[in-house]
């Protein structure tokens, strides 16, 4: 169960409105790597965690924090939209700055939300549940978490460079910091999983003996770039072998004889070219 | 530019049809962590890579391989559907096994694809472009790649346990192996990026000095689990500090005075409870 | 900012596993009227609320409760999946009950979530941000809230009839109760908005004098059912007028002459039938 | 079965083109509360209505009208795009007004539709079937209808303030009027359902005696706003009780022991912190 | 403007309920090539048609018919669901037929629609506006129409083979017939466009002289199948040339130097392998 | 299996950056008729093709080429974005051209992709698997292919007119040429299918004798346009009959008596108007 305080985790006060930037900030709310994603990803991971204790508690601590990040960003967006020229017509544009703002604004923040944030990204694509993963396997999931925090921090860093507003920058400095520590904590938790003997370095640690031992340590040179084997991954004792001229291992890909009642194009008497031999099949392609 | 051979990278021959399993395999084709995802993720990363040489070549080698994985799986699905009771009515079910198959089949594999694979997951949700990421930052992207391969291998391992068919298992052993080596290669490439001095351990390595130094090394104890600080992440010299009773740093979250032409509910004379004081505002909520 | 306790708002303990039912319960988690919807709808409404006090506080109380409802349902789903025949092959089905379960299970709860809930509905369609509305206008939004709670309670009632498990029914009785009181509270809050003079009975209360007065009180009889005017809405002093034989008020719908550089099919010399008169236009349809 | 006349229900003639506004109007065509939504919502409700007569006939009258509203808006959009600078390059922008128009236009109206409307909203998100509801329960559905008309009228009112074009405003006055009467008719029909004894004030009227009687009349104070109980909903005889310090009723949320073949992270010998006791489990996390 | 009669275009009466088949029929309602698609495709094409007369009138005749097809199918689905075991638990399955039905039913037809059709396909994926095209170019659009009717008839034919119910088959015979004539009419209309000199055989007929004349009549042999040039398309005077060993015409694909403020991984001093030469760049990858 | 060369199929070098145009080009990458669509459509058709030889080989040749088209366009987009004012604030706009560019740019190309292409269209909607079709029936699929190439060429032609950049135009001339030949090849392959006796002119050629012979050659005059029968489709010996005043063939559309446990609104004693007769049903709408 959850409780809420009206106080924000960190202040979210822009110095002045900036409706175009309010659109861009949507990426951090409802984008694939926005705060709604980490909120829901961590919540479902926590609820689906099969091992009580430190891991689950760390997940739930972080999940609960992230709901508050959505809150900070939604508040910031509403404030950036204060006094926005929502109902200005294009004809009213008097100067290039206004023109850029008018052209670049998110019309749904005005028409749909009345001057507030929406659960969507900077192009208006709605957030969806496929952005998250909660597999029950903590190694696989903590990798996904570290990756999500990395993409999130990267996008925050880019947005940090897109504004001069001291109030916005102040909040983004806090967000950058939280993304840094969250990256670090998931990387540390991965080490801990391995130290605890719960997971190996490959996720999942299962079936490693059953998987195809001939093909689990080779890079296939399938693009003609000459340097794919110049990394240290291709050198040393534990190197991954680089197959310079790999050949297909399977036969030709082909689909089987079709079910006649599904009407795939087919002839029982076709030759290799697909031409019908002898008595031509009727134009009705149902094979009898 | 690409070229194609009809030969599959690895054989994809089931011993017998299994239409229900053909549905489940869709997860590895068009699911969020299926082969379409890694194909497109690596292709866009390669095309968007800003640094020529070993990293880009490794990405393109792997991307090109993954297209062939979609091909193997699509071929396998078509073969698993051979002779499937696509047009059997429910009344035709004579035994429980058939009933389970009929109930569990993907109707679109028959109705839409005529007995073949579709670019969708095991519940029929179509693959979409938001499943991938290609940010230009290789640390952030390789983390995402290692995470994708981990989830992909995990799902493959689960599916491996859901079949007894030796032909299917043979192919999945190959897939497991490729997922293992791909995980390994991205982890190694992350180390290489750091060894080359191109990226640090936090993505992106930028703005680390500008970010909020007070809050980039603390875990906020916001869920009441008692063990969030029991990991080694909370011990030692480089520990992340655990705030046992963190307080909000910001003021109350509130939205500014609305634009009257957008008709948000508001009264200029409301008291703290939202009740209008003195002369009641007209029912028309446009503030004049 | 939010805080979390590990204790559930209400107990979520099924008496026995039921994996098919676990799929159906997904509708209450990630369906269009599931708990993720009301959670996000109320959160965004609260953050975007322009009038401090009783309305906003009520919204935030309810929003915070709803996060905990997602938690209860996700927990229930994981428990219903305990011991589910996730890796049983169709061939393993020994009796009709098992067959129905196998056929009807959600494969992604096993393959993707490892035996847990996913942020999707009972057909696997992911939850998305378009399910919610937060317009800033409280009358419009409270109507949407009452409607959402009504659909939610209706679906819960249907699901209540689909199980015999006493533990599941116990939790659903709680959910039904909460949906009842939430419906009631939004209906009461609508009355309060009107009593406070903040909104009228039509949302928004604006532009009522400017809108077309001739057409704001008529039902157009456009389907040939004979009873559309038999309700009390068509009787009494404040009746809505029923136009028995309404005529179109506009001219023909037609699209203007196209931009030649966009290559819409068009001929400057066509007659009314679309046939080109005199010198035939060249096959190149660019108008010169 | 349907019939169509070329005449529009109301005139849709702008005085002059306005391509930026043509983008905004897309919200009323293909947005979540646009005319495609009410068209399809009412059609499916009518087709799924289980009670012949006045309710069904009213639904079908309105559904049929709404198809004509999509037609009016699509016609208006095509006309607003006449002579639009669809193929102007950014370099051709000579003044701020043109710049705002160029920046703000919907590129798909030109590239995809050749200067016409698309079945999408003002950010290009396609309309989808999840926007509608047709549950068979008329109380729940009429609530949804009144809510949809409220949001639709609100968006129309906002768009009315975003244009000065007399032709556009004339049509929107008609739309506002229709949204007003449609709101009214659904509210009246809700009263009628109750007067007819078909539904109560809570939807559905079923299971009210079986639901949890202890928790169907309480608001849980879970956010720290002080005014959630200051509305009249918390006063009087039929007040909803306000729980000032509500406690969780359930035990801790936890997920059960996982299926070993699904490889969730787990150890049979872990302690409360998640640390493995005694003999460390192998790195392979399959529980044997 | 539209009008509606309660009479269906054709009878839609199944002999007996078949809830599993009711799920499959959803493909013809809300699938990519279902009746909602042709309805909306033709409506938007008609509204966006730039040439008055025979073409537009044919489009609108057909569009209006298709709305009635959605109606027939939605009615059929509701009737197929009559008496469906919507609330039967899996445990209640007593025989394999019931098991197949239970496992294969669409749970949303019961939970969401109360025993009726939904605007979604046979896997529950909602219909969306991207399924349709209305480009303004009639040749391009009539090709899309003929293709849509072909896929639609194909799916109808497959579904025809999946039922034994005489009532369902009777209606599907009508649907098959309508799909046949609609295919024919669009093919005939394509010939007419060409006869009228409005379009050529390539869509659009524009820019044919400006396009690259060297590469507009060659097939590139990029897959190693030996028979790609064995069709008559590769023989005769107007043959398409088959390039047996085509070479890339462009230089290497590469992305330009990145914007340093967007933090793509890059080093100004890297060598061809991506290794940094000389003084290593700091771990902070911002280029200064 | 696939192989890749770093050389592009055709050069993709713009003369100068144009970030607004880079957004528009997204339509050709990830739009419904962009290169990702034809890539995946042809790949799945090839993998699902049931007839070996010339048809399948042609499909795979073309599929393999299309992957390279996505590559060319992604490369072009990255180059058009070089030096884009990604991090310029709106306030920095100094002239209308810059304003139009700023307003019209795709923010995700910067924030998400770091200055590169994304798998989405010009409004940011992600590409999805429902854009493609691979039915197994080659006539139906080749029609879809010819239609896709027609829409693709049309969009390319429109985009050709939206730029003055010689480098961009050079590449688009190549794309136009490839779209021309691909249209031609699918049209020729359709003729070949018929010449080979594999398919007729209607897809599928099956069930033509079983379909309703009374209604497979009539156009229903359901819209009041007077010219729907003025095409040659309505003249000559093989004309399609035009029904001037068609009547519905079915009875009234109605839904059956509902399942009481699903709580659709219903009364066993209602009259034709929906009013309950005699003893009013209780407000609880469960029918007993």
From TrEMBL, chains A, B, C, D, E, F:
One MF annotation (Gene Ontology) recorded for this entry: metal ion binding
Swiss-Prot/TrEMBL keywords: Calcium, Manganese, Metal-binding
SUPFAM superfamilies: Ferritin-like
Signal peptide feature range: none
A Pfam family it matches: Mn_catalase
Entry similarity comment: Belongs to the manganese catalase family.
UniProt keyword Calcium present: yes
Location of region: Disordered: 245-288
Cofactor binding comment, as recorded: Binds 1 Ca(2+) ion per subunit.
CDD domains named in the record: Mn_catalase
Binding site for Ca(2+): 57, 61, 223, 225
Protein name according to UniProt: Mn-containing catalase
Residues the entry annotates as binding Mn(2+) 1: 35, 69, 149, 182
Domain of life: Bacteria
Cofactor(s) demanded: Ca(2+); Mn(2+)
Record: residues binding Mn(2+) 2: 66
